[in-house]
Each structure stands twice: as C-alpha cells, then as structure tokens.
Design brief:
This protein has 14 helices and 24 strands. By secondary structure, it is an alpha/beta fold. The structure holds flavin-adenine dinucleotide.
Amino acid sequence: MAREEFDHIVVGGGSSGCVAAARLVADGGHRVLLLEGGHSNRHPLLDMPPGIFKMINGSKFMDYHTTVPQPHLNGRAHDIPQGNVLGGGSSVNAQVYMRGRPSDYNAWDATLRGNNDGADWSWDAVLKHFRGMEDNNRLLNDLHGTGGKMQVSDPGHIDQMSRWFVQAVQGLGEPFNPDFNGPSQRGVGFYQFMNRHGRRSSAAYAFLSPLEGDPRLTVRLQSRAERLIIEKGRAVGVVWRDKSGAQRESFTRGEIIVTSGALITPKLLMLSGLGPADHLRDHDITVAADLPGVGQNLIDHPEVPMIATANGPYGYFKQGVGWRMLMNGLQFKLFGSGRILSAGVEAGAFVNPTDPEAEPTIQAFCVPIVYLDRDTLTLVENTYGLTVTTVVVKPKSRGEVRLRSANPADKPLVSPNLLKHPEDMAAMIAGQRFFIRAFQTEPLAARVKRLAIPDPAKLDDATLTEHCKRFVKTNYHPASTARMGADGDPMAVLDSWMRVRCVEGLRVADMSAVPDINAGNTNAPAMMLGDRCADFIMGRA
Ligand SMILES: Cc1cc2nc3c(=O)[nH]c(=O)nc-3n(C[C@H](O)[C@H](O)[C@H](O)COP(=O)(O)OP(=O)(O)OC[C@H]3O[C@@H](n4cnc5c(N)ncnc54)[C@H](O)[C@@H]3O)c2cc1C
C-alpha cells in the first residue's frame, strides 16, 4: 500500500489542535491530517451549556484520569476528566472565557528571552491572537475584538442567586468588574462565555466547521496516536490505531504538531523515546533524546468547594429533578431563553484576601446549585442552594506525569500534588475564609439556611487545612508538562518557537507547552497556542 503522506500532521483535535490544523489549511493552504482519539462533537449534550453536569459524572466524551494516591492529601486520589471528543476541552468545558493577565505572559517572555532569536511571548504579542480569534457580543476596544471565529458572549441567563453573590462580594469591599479580561482582573462580576444563543463555540465548531468538505483537511476520529516515528533525528510520522483497532501509519515531510493535552502529550513523547532517559529505559523504550523535562512540572489549578443550602427555592434545582429539566428544555426550544442558556456558573470573582490592591491570588466560581459529587454526596442534602469554589490562580505546587507502562493503551500515572506547597494551602485557606464571609453578607445571608461545608463554627487553620485536603480537586487545567524554556534550561522540552529540542520537525502546541499557568481558565490560552504555532510554521510570527 502507498505510504500516506501529508504536509503536516496534528496529533490531538482539542482546543489548540483544531485551531492549529484549521489555520494551516485555511491560511497556509497545506494538506493536513488531524488525528483525534475521541468522538465526533455532534451531540446536543455538547452544545447546551448545562450538558457539562451530565458529562463530568460519566460520558463517552470524557477521558477519566485518576491521580495516584496523594500522600499530602491523606492518601486521597481524585479524578481529572479531560475531553475525549473533537474540540477536546473546548467541547466539554464550562465555556468560561478567560485569558489570564498581562503579567502572566510578560513573565513567560522574560523567561524565554534567554533564547537566541527567541519568539516574542509578551502580552502585546499574545493579545493580537486573543483579539483576532474573538467575536465578542458586547465589547470592542483595544482588548477585545469582533469578527473572529470564536463567539464570546455575556451569560444568556443569570440566576437571582448569582446576582445576590455578586452583591454580597461588593458588600465586602470588592469592586464590580464588568470585564475580567479587561484592564484589571480584580473584583466580582459575571463571566463571559464561549458561546452564542446557547450554542457552544468550541474550537471544533468555530475553526473546523467552516472547512467541512475541504479536501486539504483530513480529520480522523477515534484514531488514537500511539507513538511518533523518528528517523535520523527527525519526526516523520505517527503510528496510530483506528476505530476498528487496526494499527496504521501516516507520514509527513513537514511538521508534526502534538496537541493531545497536558496529560497525554508527555505520554506520547515518552512512548516515542523522548523523555527522561532513565524512566524510558525502565520501560524498555529506546531513547531517541534524553529530555528530562517531559512529564515534569505538571501545574494545575486547585479548587475547593464551599456549599450552602438555601432557605427557599433559590438557585437552579435539586439535582435529579427530571421534570424541571424537561421544562427548561421546552422553554429553550420554544423561546430560546431560560436556564438551558447557563452552564451553571455565571458569576465569579478575583480577589487577593491578604492584600486587596495586589494582583488577585484567588478566583471564585459561583454555581447556584448544591453540587454533589462523590466527595460531597453524603455530607450535604440534595436541595436548593449554592456552591462557591475557590481556586489558587498562581499555584507553586508542581507534579508529574509518568508512564505506567510502555503499552499505549495504558493511562499515564498522574500526580498533580495539588496544594502540596504551603503557600498554595495558605492562599486557599485565605480564599475560603474570604468567601465564607460572602455567605454571611447581605443580600446572600438572608437566603442561606446553613453553610454545610466547611463548618462555619470551625474556621481555624487546622480544620480548614483538613477541609481543603478532603475536597481539593482539579479546576480541569493541567498544564506545563512539556514546557518551553530558555537555551541552557535543562528542564526545557521546547524552545520558544514550540519546537521539541533535539528533534527536527516536531512541535508541541497545547497547554503542555506553557512555562507557567495563566491566572484564570485555560481554554482561550490553549487556542492562542494553536494559533501561534500555526503562525510559527507558516513563518508569520
Ligand atoms: C470539565 C472541564 C471544564 C473546563 N472548564 C473550562 C472553562 O469553563 N473555561 C476554560 O477556559 N477552560 C476550561 N477547561 C479547560 C480547557 O478546556 C482546557 O485547558 C483546554 O481545552 C486544553 O486544551 P488543549 O488543546 O491543551 O487540550 P485538549 O483540549 O484536552 O485536547 C487534547 C485532545 O487530544 C485528544 N487526544 C488525547 N490522546 C490522543 C491520542 N493518543 N491520539 C489522538 N488524540 C488524542 C483528546 O481527545 C483531545 O481532543 C475545562 C476543562 C474541562 C475538562
């Protein structure tokens, strides 16, 4: 059989991969193969914002990783669901539109400027991409754009409970912030979302749909890459398994762009012989390049919930009340309005509880529902209420991704070490204390029946530390496991052009690539990475 060859191959059709593939085809005129391990994104559950509640707790559109037991969390393991569908995280996430703040990117740039001929990662450089991709339904200014492919909108529905939360936090002295991606992150307000009229604007929908039928783009679904083929120091192809289980190979004379997400990208590199040499030898993998940084430096945003029950039918619903969901569905179908337009989270905040004028240390999400999962199910009654989660936005804890075995079908061993660093724990406790006060501040206080977790009578450090250890989980933002770094940085896997060191023709363009995590959600940054990588390949930086 003739060897199948493309101009470029993109491995992983998630937030970054869809953008990179689409740009290479549409703007570069290249013939591109996009290999996606997951399913088609054509499903109503993916489109409607509340679908996330169903998906998180069990769906074929998610790939469920469980961490190795975390000794510093009393041996607890927690889940890290990741998208398993075209569009990746952008097809399953809560759609909150956040970029992070200029200092995030200026710090990357300062780190990466150690490179000879390094790429520009400053805020001004990345802002062009954020703005260019954006079609904002309210804002057009130096920071926001219209006419881009990704639809960004104000919430289609705001529950009264979210408004009470916003007012309560203002009562604590925080300003109302009309735009968390504006000049300042600080304050409380309503998020913007990557959707329009209740339809998700995933990377697949926004970037791939316009190319449907274009013969230059080949998208293969349920096609899982197993390893890269490296010949004479150059990445030339991919070994992958198709839907039927048959092993296949595809080749390129151009570049391979790995975008399989921060948990799978390092696994793929290691299975291809690119990683810490000792670890690869332990698994009888021939070392193509000793890159000790592959799989190291895992960063994720830790999230800890606070749950209050309400003294009336406030907030969305009791979980499992099917007729109510049906009514909501009907309202959406007939009038295009109602709760189906909300992914649950509408309001949020960025605060610094210890130094209010300094950059925020904590992001909060307000979800007007008693959110029950396997950790909280037995502790809180299934009734109306409110969940507020606090997230440490610049965590110092670092974890790792390692191979479980050399079998591509095995999931990697993931150890994120959430809240292991004492400064992360201290920031989280300060954040919890701050938002507990919001539950006790009007107009929210009048609607709260009881704060179920944590116990408001026990807010000493030791008890709050145990609360955090018991409930901390991922905010779904794994990052930095194959990071860019300056020349001479032994843990740098990539140079500042996202090229894998020591190998020709290979780049990583997903959240694995970032030198540090941005303060805030990570979908827009992932899409920015895909956009920039395409520019780098096309020589348009
Ligand atoms: C439940 C959830 C909620 C979130 N909420 C938000 C939010 O509200 N706002 C926000 O900004 N961010 C949110 N995020 C985070 C954001 O979506 C991710 O950071 C972002 O999608 C990461 O993009 P990526 O390109 O790095 O990886 P991904 O989007 O995860 O893409 C990786 C892709 O590679 C595919 N893949 C994996 N292995 C293979 C293989 N071997 N071969 C081929 N393909 C493979 C996967 O199926 C996936 O499509 C959320 C994430 C999740 C999971």
